[in-house]
Amino acid sequence: MANPIDTKTISKLAEILDKNQLTGLSYEDETYKISLTRENIGGYVPAYTPAPAQPTPVAAAPAAAEEVKEEEDFSNSPNAVKSPMVGVVYLSSNPNSPTYVKEGDSVATGDTVCLIEAMKTFNPVKAHKSGRVTKILVETGEPVEYGEPLIIIE
User: Fold this and answer.
1) Is residue 116 part of a domain?
2) Do 135 and 90 lie in a common domain?
3) 138 within some domain
4) Residue 139 lies in a domain
5) Are residues 129 and 78 in the same domain?
6) Cβ contacts of residue 119 below 8 Å, gap of 6+?
7) Quick check: helix, strand or coil at residue 13?
8) Which three-class secondary structure state does DSSP give residue 31?
9) CA–CA gap between residue 127 and residue 151 (Å, rounded)
10) Which residues form the domain of 98?
11) Model confidence pLDDT, tens digit, residues 60-117
């Protein structure tokens, strides 16, 4: 006889999915595997929101065009540290601690650059190469998807 489905676990996963505005979540143990997904139904705040553009004089229109170029898609960049899982990103170990890295910092391969919280477990995200942090694409407390670029190291 098959084990009954644990509805408490499913309810908790659905709560995490909703609370963190995630589009998907998976859980597996020795008995069963659960995958929850939902369509993105309004109200979702993307993990990377560009800062509002500063007002510029009409004569400075070419500079505004340059700003648009900076908003790149880093999803295929070999310099991007990507989220290894769906969860919530934290740039420091607690609110009173300094961030693991800032733009301009040098990092070595294996250094912790942020944490991803999933299922009440904090998972360190490590630098995949040595270099200088040139961009931080997320803010503490934002939901992130698997494979989403978090930090750029060049």
Assistant:
1) yes
2) yes
3) yes
4) yes
5) yes
6) 16, 27
7) helix
8) coil
9) 9
10) 74-153
11) 555 544 544 456 778 788 889 999 999 999 999 888 889 999 999 999 999 999 999 9
For residue 132 the two structure tokens come to 């200088």
Burial class (CB in 10 A: 0-12, 13-18, 19+), 150: buried
Give kind and range of the element (H or E) at residue 70.
helix 61-70
Cα–Cα nearest to 127, from 97, 84, 88, 98 = 84
List residues bridging with 15 in a β-sheet.
none
Report which residue type is found at 118.
Answer: A
pTM: 0.54
CA 64 to chain centre: 27
Strands 24-28 and 33-37, sheet pairing? antiparallel
Residues 101, 81: Cα–Cα separation, whole Å? 12
Q: Tokens in use for 118?
A: 């999933």
Question: What one-character-per-residue DSSP string does 75-103 give?
Answer: TT-TTEEE-SSSEEEESSSSTTSPPS--T
Residues constituting the chain: 154
